[in-house]
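Q: A reviewer asked whether we had any structural model of the full assembly, not just the individual parts. We don't, so I'm hoping you can provide one. Inputs are below.
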Amino acid sequence: MHRRMFATAAAVVLLAAGCTTGGTDTPQQDAAGPAELLFWNTGSDEQAASLQVAADRYKETHPDVTVKVQAISWDDGHAKVLTAATSKSGPDIISGGLSWGIEFGELGGMIDLNAYDIAQAKQQTRPELWNSITSTDGAVYGIPMDMVLYVFYYRPDLLEAAGVTKAPATWEELFAAVEKVKASGVVTPLVEEWGTFEWLPWFNYLKQAGGALYSDDCSQVTISSDQAVLATTTWADQYRKYGVPKATVDVGNGLAKGEYAMAIGASYLAGGFDAAHPELKGKWQTAPLPVGPAGAGSFVGGKIVGAMAHTRFPQAAADFVTWLYTDEAVEILQREVFTRGGELYISPRPELLDKANASDNLRQTLKATLNTVTGPPNCKGWETSGSEVSKRLQAVVNDGKDPKAALDEAATIMQDNLR
Amino acid sequence: MTAVITKPATPARNHRARQVARWRRAVPGYFMLLPFVALFCGFLVWPLLNSLYFAFTDFNGVKPPGWVGGENFARLWTEDTRFRKALLNSLIYVACAVTLSTAASLALALAFRGTSWQDRIMRTIFFLPSVTSTIAVMLIWRWIFSGERFGLANTVLSWFGAEPVSWLSTPRWTIPLLVLMAVWGGCGYGMVIFVSGLNAIPEEFYEAARLDGATLWQQFRYITLPQLGPVTTYVVITGLIGAFQVFEAVYIVFRAVSSVGGVQDSALMLVPYLYDMGFTRFQLGYASAIAWTLFLIIFVISMIQLRFTRAVREL
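A: Here is a predicted structure for the entire assembly that you could use as a starting point for your response.
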């Protein structure tokens, strides 16, 4: 009996102690002494090493600030940053998906950089991109660090062999090209990469059809419009009629072997084609995505970089974050990211695209694409809704669900999450 | 070892002396237990109690938790269609995986129960998946069922002129593939347990049965199976607990094609759903409610299984 009472009392004490977990203090001024900042960069080891070179250069002009860059993977980066925010320990600066700033910031895990000097960064960034990282209440918890654009990759020789003389510029030309290339013997004429079979590639069709996810002021969900139905039908036809694989594929390998003739994929792929597949060198070209009835349009992604709320050095962290926008930092990152990982670094400052390690053809494609991009919505609940929308879209392809009905379901979920 | 010697005395003094002696003997033991108790409390009891508390809060991981009472549980059972999907998927998966895995384990144990080197080698081979890194195994499964032509499954299909199949992106294949992975990975462990159970059955039982003219099937049906009852219960219950907690297979293999839960949530199970709500959507309070619901489900099913086994044994 006594033992049972003791156990119950111990449990109550432990439970009560558990209730005291948590705190709200947010440092506003830097602690005294030299600042040592830990920067968790979501991405490859090569990217982290490139950032470390930039950080070392920063230290030359800021001797009191030491930045140590560590790589965390995309697979578990989100959970790691959440754990850091929960335990109020770990990195001072993090980089991650474009929406992470709003997500972690609204939880109280990141600093609103409006309190620091980010005016120039805002001025230098494309408004569509800046809008995506700005919370609906105006807070900016992370500023863009790089950009990823959708690019149309193709093998001109395979297209020519099928009687297609130029890169398809419209939806009609795209699907006509798919049929011709298929008839010429290419097993899989077109593939999608970057968010394959998720909402990302569908978003391109949505923009090209003239649709939108939300109204401009985020007050209404607009996903079940006629334009969205057209976009969904066209996107689903890729898989149902034209044999686009639903699983992620190795674009470089497929293009090199001639198994794929065209690919809609992320800009970061371009840097690795020639290095990983020397036989592909000079055989591939790029173009902006084919346009739809409403014209051109595509999704822009990338990373944000911001300071964690628990950092003891918010001013130093914010200074370093904004320094990444300077000509000097961008030049280092463009060079180092390409040298170390064969990747293309696209700065959020579009005017510096000319200095990127890319062919003229790719640079022209990126410049043309940049003029018509839209970032992820900054409306409340989108992060929760995104995967739900994907599931409804997948049902259109797999179950033959009516696109309008699927979009109506998605709209209901988005509207609920918007409240 | 030191002996405690006491002089003959009154019963009360004797009792007290015995108590002191018992304490002296016990104290070093308790001291030796302390590191374990500290770790057990710090890394199991404390997080468990915290999670129970969080299940009744709106904890998001960063802001202090706010008490919401039973709201999380009410939402889980009455509103959350995704939870229902995860629960249904889990029940189908658990039923198939545990049944097939147990049957395969028993079949393997019967086939390789001997002490010959051939049987030992076969047992080692079948046991290997149990001691192999789960992550590595799952990455290999992902490669085997890759939708591209280089995936092993599609390569085999291509030998027969069949078109490649998008295994991981086709919802109707999802649970069969998960069950296949579970049976392949789990039957070796069950086999070892069954082999020890089989070897504990007295040979005299079979000799008597043979003298009575029992066939092999009758020996299996009326001697082997009943004698393996407790072992089978153990294999089934541990298999059931493991199957309800499936995570790596869903997270690693099906994450290749879609967000957590695979295409159209066809691979969504309770633990991946819990992870998704907690670490992707920051609803750690709600995720804790899912965790405790999962505990209750496993507890109830295990109790039913134990009662059922006991009832069958008493028939």
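A: Points you may want to mention in the reply: Chain A has 17 helices and nine strands. Residues 2-18 of chain A form the longest helix (17 residues).
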